[in-house]
Design goal:
Elements (H helix, E strand, L loop, with lengths): L3 H11 L7 E2 L4 H4 L7 E6 L4 E5 L5 E2 L4 H12 L2 H5 L15 H5 L10 H14 L3 H13 L5 E2 L1 H9 L2 H12 L7 H12 L1 E3 L1 H7 L1 H4 L13 H14 L5 H7 L4 E3 L4 E6 L3 E6 L2 E2 L6 H14 L5
Antiparallel strand pairs: 1-10, 2-3, 2-9, 4-6, 5-6, 7-8, 8-9
The protein binds glutamine.
Glutamine binds next to loops.
Family: Belongs to the glutaminase family.
Catalytic activity: L-glutamine + H2O = L-glutamate + NH4(+)
GO biological process, one term: L-glutamine catabolic process
């Protein structure tokens, strides 16, 4: 376990970067977030959690939820069914791009861009009676926190500004790669994005990625092989168009969200969550990436 002093050092180290990024402003509920927040939490495979800065303050997890939805799909579907509808390649386009969906006949590049996550939400919607409730159950169990909930204001705000995601879903439907009612699936997807969690919750919840598929309470959520595969996808596609830069600087599988959170793992050792709302040009937390970079250097860890 890294010492608390190291986590505090990481937070202090990146404080000068505040002001250099831009808080997500595509919905008012996110634009009003305090830009000066910095938090980090780490959970080890021994089950210990430690945090520094604003690590107990909940934020909108946004696209980090795409890891939970793919995981849930892996527990419900044969893998071939999932991968016949979504690819495993980095996209090279922005996370909400329609271009590739059109060019590649409705099959999204990977499950971590919006198009891919919408297909996964469609899969969940068609298999589960109550997909929103099931997700809440899962993340509460994984984070061992019954207070985790959806931020209704964020979910509603996403829905009121849903034109682009709706366009992506309809485009996929036109190619036959979307089964459910678009509006219903969008609502489910927006609720997943609107999950409100803090760094401690998320570092605990993601422990299975560092622990061969085993959750904090020792349950095998997905297999060891599936965990390795999921980490490979996170390393190649978890940071959108910034995946190469992130691999270069941080060297860990990770997933970002436009709420400013990033989760990352050192397989076999620990899971990490950082949060700072200001984003870089690819929609990834600017100071969050710098926190992970500093931590990986100080720990001398990289998967490469
Ligand atoms: N709710 C956002 C969207 O669908 C999530 C995007 C993100 O975090 N990158 O556009």
């Amino acid at each position: 376990m890294p010492e608390l002093a190291l986590l505090e050092e990481v937070v202090d180290k990146v404080r000068p970067l505040l002001g250099q990024g831009k808080v997500a402003d595509y919905i008012p509920a996110l634009a009003s977030v305090d830009a000066g927040k910095l938090g980090i939490a780490v959970t080890t495979v021994d089950g210990e959690t430690l945090g520094a800065g604003d690590y107990l303050e909940p934020f909108s997890i946004q696209s980090i939820s795409k890891v939970f939805s793919l995981t849930l799909a892996l527990t419900l579907y044969e893998e071939a069914e999932i991968w016949s509808r979504v690819g495993k390649e980095p996209s090279g386009h922005s996370f909400n791009s329609l271009v590739q969906v059109e060019l590649e006949r409705g099959k999204p590049r990977n499950p971590f861009i919006n198009a891919g996550a919408l297909v996964i939400a469609d899969l969940l919607q068609s298999r589960l009676g109550a997909p929103k409730h099931r997700m809440l159950e899962l993340v509460r169990q994984l984070s061992q926190n019954d207070k985790v909930c959806f931020d209704k204001q964020v979910a509603d705000s996403e829905y009121q500004h849903s034109a682009r995601n709706a366009a992506i879903a309809y485009l996929m439907k036109s190619f036959g790669n979307f089964q459910g009612d678009v509006d219903t699936v969008l609502r489910t997807y927006f609720h997943y994005c609107a999950l409100k969690m803090n760094c401690a919750d998320l570092s605990k919840a993601m422990l299975y990625l560092a622990n061969r598929g085993k959750t904090l309470d020792g349950i095998e959520l997905i297999s060891q092989v599936q965990t390795r595969q999921l980490n490979a996808l996170l390393a190649t596609s978890g940071l959108y168009d910034g995946a190469g830069e992130f691999a270069y600087r941080v060297g860990m599988p990770g997933k970002s969200g436009v709420g400013g959170g990033i989760i990352a793992v050192i397989p076999g050792e620990l899971s990490i969550c950082v949060w700072s709302p200001e984003l870089d040009g690819n929609g990834n937390s600017l100071a969050g990436t710098a926190m992970l970079e500093h931590l990986s250097q100080r720990l001398g860890r990289s998967i490469f």
